[in-house]
Task: structure prediction
Amino acid sequence: MAHTYEVFLGCAIPNRFNNYEASMRQVAKGLGIELLDFDGASCCGTVVLKSIDENSWLAMSGRNIALAESRGHDIVTPCNGCFGSLKDTDHVLHDNDTHRNALNEALKPLGLEYTGKANVRHFVEVLYDLKDEIKKKIVKPLNGLKIAFHPGCHLIRPSNVADFDDPELPQKVDELLELTGAKSVPWGMKLSCCGSPLLIASEDVATKIIKEKMESAKEGGANCLVTNCPACHTQFDVQVLGLKDDNGESLELPALFVTQVLGIAMGLDPEELGFELNRVSLDPIAEILSI
Result:
């Protein structure tokens, strides 16, 4: 059965995290998911713009949704931030006639209209729906991989908008990861923010947060960190480089994307999954991953 989506990559992934895009495309191909390049897409509008000018945010994000709708496709995005912005916009436009009418008036010169027919989905949502197929495709079990999974904020909050998993006890992506033979370990700071949004305002505070997160992951017994968000990955695979605890011990852990974990367990080529682009050394788990 074919699954076709307009793929909304956002800004960070094509510019900073080609390993996420590459692994997403390889996993999608292996599962028969058709990802169409989102021709004409603009910035999602971001949740930051919403706090400054809600009308501009709705116009930018709403135009993207209407564009996908005009081509008869749902939207899928691997980015938590884009998912949060697009999903929230869709939620507002569904429920608010005033905002919807204002948007459609602005879209008239473009020949577009928002009617709410196009769904907005995170890529891990699509994967979760195919978990039975994924299970059949696991050919290289990742026994010994102990994952501290970080879902990120916008995948699960606010729950009435994201509508994907329990914000207090999310477990759907953990289920996906454990199909590979890996263990998703419980850790105390799993649901706290990674600190990435604070990098612009206060790198010191953002560093303090990621330090606490990494200490928590290590205390939970993890030998790697896994996420599905490029902004969060900035913290776990870039900002963490050289970071030490109060005793001078390294706080680095190999940081992977969900799609890299699934892809390697499905027997896909490590090079095509972009492992060479991960910043923190993968040596501690290289034998488990067979890379």
